[in-house]
Amino acid sequence: MRRILISSDLSERSRRALRRAVALAKQFGSWLSVLHVVDDDQPQALIAQESRAAEAVLRDELDRASVGDVAALSSVSVVAGDPFRAIADEAHRLDADLIVMGAHRKRLLGDIFTGTTIERVVRLGGRPVLMVNRDDDAAYSNVMAAVDLSEASAHALHTARSLGLLEPDRDAAVHGFVPLGEGMMYYAGVEAHRVNKHVAVSASQARTAITKFLRDHGFGKLSNLLLIEKGTPFAAIDVGIHQLQPDLLVIGTRGHGGLKRLLLGSVADEVLRRVECDILAVPASRNIP
């Protein structure tokens, strides 16, 4: 992990994210860039005044959160513009390996119609985004990856490992499955023991498929701690979080635009809104449809 971009809105959520970003920079010897975006829809004099004040606050926070070795390998930038585009543009300019952001403020209607800032940065920036929920800067030691059989999921695993945030020897994976026809069996009055047997067979088939998927992509050791849970992907993730109490969740994203996203959403969007541990959201490679 060579370059980390931390985007701050000067909130307490962002201060937690800054502490995590500093800890990662120390751990990996990374260059750390701190960014704040000022609203550009106001008079230039106010933009200049806010920019100076924000830069002073950020430099002070960076000094207090870090020690000399990190401060010497860091920069602070304040720009005016649209936050989503400004963060994505700065990440591209820096060729950042990771974007770090504080947990978003939950606003139901705003989230439904526009998506959270983090979701939009993932889609615009095309780079891994670490959303920091926890007030803890200790190195991640209990990581859980949400997996399915998609190339986006494999890409998320490879990205998390290349960033140094996933260790297959140590960490866990979770997968959710929905037994085909279970509801129809209940509706048709099939005996409970036969339904249960069908569910058990489906769970075994899911475990076999995911284990092969992990092995084929070089993550076979993740199957040593593999949770196969009946239910939707988010329900399985929720069970895994309650059982394993991870400090970091890794999830791949497959973005949707416009009406399709509004109607269907995605598992990653739900995770970003509701999960309380830190989340590494990895956008699909541009080569993945």
TrEMBL record:
GO molecular function, one term: ATP binding
UspA domain: residues covered: 1-132, 140-283
InterPro entries: Rossmann-like_a/b/a_fold, Universal_stress_UspA, UspA
SUPFAM superfamilies: Adenine nucleotide alpha hydrolases-like
Keyword ATP-binding found: yes
Keywords linked to the UniProt accession: ATP-binding, Nucleotide-binding
Keyword Mitochondrion: no
Similarity comment: family membership: Belongs to the universal stress protein A family.
Name assigned to this protein: UspA domain-containing protein
Species whose genome carries this gene: Sinorhizobium alkalisoli
